[in-house]
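# step 3/5: fold
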Amino acid sequence: MLHDSPNELLLCSNCSQKLALMPLDFPKINILDRLDQCSIDQIYIAYQFDDVIQSVIHSIKYSKMPQLGVTAGKYTARNLRLNLEQIQERIFLPVPLHPARQKERGYNQSQFIAKGIVQAAGGILLRHGLFRGRNTVSQTNLNRDERQRNVESAFHVKNAGDISGKTILLVDDLITTGATINECAKVLKEFGAQRVIGIAVASPVIFQPNASTA
């Protein structure tokens, strides 16, 4: 699946060709329009969650391969280039893990994905703009309503001055129902964020409770 180049870890050409691009209207119809009290202004998703993307995401999260997260971020930025170029102020903020889960994993995969996006598209990486104050259960087997309740009041802003009056691009590996990223957006707007845009590597085109954790 992977091979090294002089400068970065890359997907092999066979896997790259298998990546299925996300239809442009999918995030609005299937995520934004189905959120109760939608706080997020826009969502951009690069790829459909399929076997190739699943392997990549699982390797990043569970096989101690954070640099693959940087690669996934670069692929995401290249695919979403036209969308990102329309945003003058690009402040990328990774969706945080709870400290206990991050300690167990060793890193936050979304931070490495955001790092790759910044390297490819330019902008500012706000590593610690949010923190997760409650260690929520995994979203994996929860339905849409349960996911929303699970993340309610779980996120907090660290420094309002980093947020107020700005456009914030929230980065996650996967977005399924949008519950997690919408809850983050809600908190950011309470602290003065002007716009909040979600960015993700992938989303399942058909929602299955065990397809994602977001």
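# step 4/5: annotate
Residues 20-203 form a domain with the Rossmann fold fold (CATH 3.40.50.2020).
# step 5/5: archive (pending)
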